[in-house]
UniProtKB/TrEMBL annotation:
Family: Belongs to the UDP-glucose/GDP-mannose dehydrogenase family.
Transmembrane segments: none
Species in which this protein is naturally found: Streptomyces blastmyceticus
InterPro entries, per database record: 6-PGluconate_DH-like_C_sf (IPR008927), NAD(P)-bd_dom_sf (IPR036291), UDP-Glc/GDP-Man (IPR017476), UDP-Glc/GDP-Man_DH_C (IPR014027), UDP-Glc/GDP-Man_DH_C_sf (IPR036220), UDP-Glc/GDP-Man_DH_dimer (IPR014026), UDP-Glc/GDP-Man_DH_N (IPR001732), UDPglc_DH_bac (IPR028357)
EC number: 1.1.1.22
Domain UDP-glucose/GDP-mannose dehydrogenase C-terminal, first and last residues per copy: 327-428
Gene3D superfamilies: Cytochrome c1, transmembrane anchor, C-terminal, NAD(P)-binding Rossmann-like Domain
Protein name per UniProt: UDP-glucose 6-dehydrogenase
């Protein structure tokens, strides 16, 4: 009999995982404690912008015309307990307010609510990013609370999806990592992934701590790579070198690789910044904080990029923002997402606003979320409207729409033609020939 799957927490990770499991042919039940989310997903609507996710969801959500009906949503724990053989925990582990550590309360609440309804054999699989040591602790909690006792097992199966590519990354992962304490965990997860997802994909079986660490180590490495190239950008600017050329040249060495060497205003989002901080906090608890002091530097190089963009903008408008209009193109932490969590773009916009600049922001998909987070900034309905009357234009999130803008058309409405490329993605030649003073981070001025 085919396994039945539940997915607990239906944010980016959970909604995508639930739809992907249904795509593979499983019967899936998704649970969230927020009834509005369940209601929205039940209508085949996705509460965030994620390319391809809504189509996949509509293909499977029960009640939608032409769907397979394999995917349903609920707020009932009892229903989840009675339905599932494998329960995936996909809730958020955000950074704690004012601390480096991550907030485990959603994961703990999910396990505490799920365990008492597990009356039959089941596998609980954690997917959330957690500090090393959490799985062992949660396994104990589960064993103490689940009526089925030893017939309930825990496994850890970290997820590596990127926003904007969530569907693709879930259906075609680079690797599958499972942390297990017993044989049943591995057997059931092999069964789940013995589908097109797993075909030809490396399947790494490890213990709990290693599986938990794989995720934090991977994100720390990626963050380090970005801060490395941004440190080189600082040096290039001082020495009149070109960081884009430099990245290309070192990237030809296969040991280094070209990916994740885009210099600019640095990384943001709901994962990299909080994951490196939570990792440092956990290393401190384990008494090995020295092993990760380099991550403090990774974090500070990253934060310095935002301040540097503010300085470049101030310089472009003559030394003070007072009375100056600043157009900000981009609000999300990266393109193809509506996520503004720890967005470098909005952070720069906010700093300039606090220093007296009149900031107008435009973003193709992130306007609603940006307005909620920074209600005091001004927002324009199009890029052209944001640029109208501006003394400097800042390109802070590399949406394709911005690369396709005509610098001559923008130049006709701007108050002065100064543009700063915070993502090294615009065509410098095209902007310069349209009469703009063009500066990009880590590149020569001329
Ligand atoms: C990241 C990891 O890539 C993913 O594997 C993990 O599961 C979750 O965290 P995500 O946060 O969606 O994914 O975004 P990612 O594409 O990694 O970009 C993170 C940030 O780094 C963005 O702000 C992006 O603009 C920035 N970045 C990325 C750079 O500044 N330069 C680069 O070369 C690459």
């Amino acid at each position: 009999m085919a396994l039945k799957i539940t997915v607990i927490g239906t944010g980016y990770l959970g909604a995508t995982h639930a739809a992907a499991m249904a795509e593979l042919g499983f019967e899936v039940l998704g649970l969230d404690v927020v009834p509005e989310k369940i209601e929205t997903l039940g209508r085949g609507k996705v509460p965030m912008y994620e390319p391809g996710l809504e189509e996949l969801l509509r293909k499977h959500v029960a009640g939608i015309e032409g769907s397979t009906g394999r995917l349903r949503f609920t707020t009932s724990w009892e229903e989840v307990g009675a339905f599932g053989d494998v329960h995936f925990i996909c809730v958020n582990t955000p950074q704690k307010h004012g601390e480096y550590a991550c907030d485990m309360s959603y994961v703990e609440a999910a396990v505490s609510s799920l365990a008492p309804v597990l009356h039959r054999p089941a596998l609980v699989v954690g997917k959330s990013t957690v500090p090393v040591g959490s799985a062992a602790r949660l396994a104990e909690l589960l064993a103490g609370l689940a009526p089925a006792g030893a017939d309930v097992e825990l496994a850890w199966n970290p997820e590596f999806l990127r926003e904007g590519f969530a569907v693709q990354d879930t259906l075609h992962p680079d690797r599958i990592v499972v942390g297990v304490a017993g044989e049943r965990g591995e057997k059931l997860l092999r069964e789940v992934y013995a589908t097109p997802i797993g075909e030809g994909t490396p399947f790494v079986v490890a213990d709990y701590p290693t599986a938990e660490l794989v995720k934090t180590a991977a994100n720390s490495f990626l963050a380090t790579k970005i801060s490395f190239i941004n440190a080189m950008a600082e040096v290039c600017e001082a020495a009149d070198g070109d960081v884009v050329k430099l990245a290309e040249a070192i990237g030809h060495d296969e040991r280094i690789g070209k990916k994740f060497l885009r210099a600019g205003i640095g990384f943001g989002g709901g994962c990299l910044p909080k994951d490196i901080r939570a990792f440092m906090a956990r290393a401190g608890e384990l008494g090995v904080d020295q092993a990760l002091t380099f991550l403090r530097e990774v974090d500070s190089i990253n934060m310095r990029r935002r301040g540097h963009m503010v300085e470049l903008a101030r310089e472009a408008v003559g030394g003070s923002f007072l009375g100056q209009r600043v157009a900000v193109l981009g609000a999300t932490f990266k393109p193809d997402s509506d996520d503004v969590r720890d967005s470098p773009a909005l952070n720069v916009a906010g700093q300039i606003h606090l220093q007296g600049g009149q900031v107008t922001v435009y973003d193709p998909k992130g306007m609603d979320n940006a307005r909620r987070l920074f209600p005091t900034l001004a927002y324009a309905p199009t890029a052209l409207d944001a640029v109208r009357g501006a003394h400097v234009v800042l390109h802070l999130t590399e949406w394709r729409e911005f690369r396709e803008l005509d610098p001559a058309v923008l130049g006709a409405v701007a108050a002065s033609r100064h543009v700063l490329d915070g993502r090294n993605a615009l065509d410098a030649g095209a902007w310069r020939s349209a009469g703009w003073t063009f500066r990009a981070m880590g590149r020569p001025r001329a």
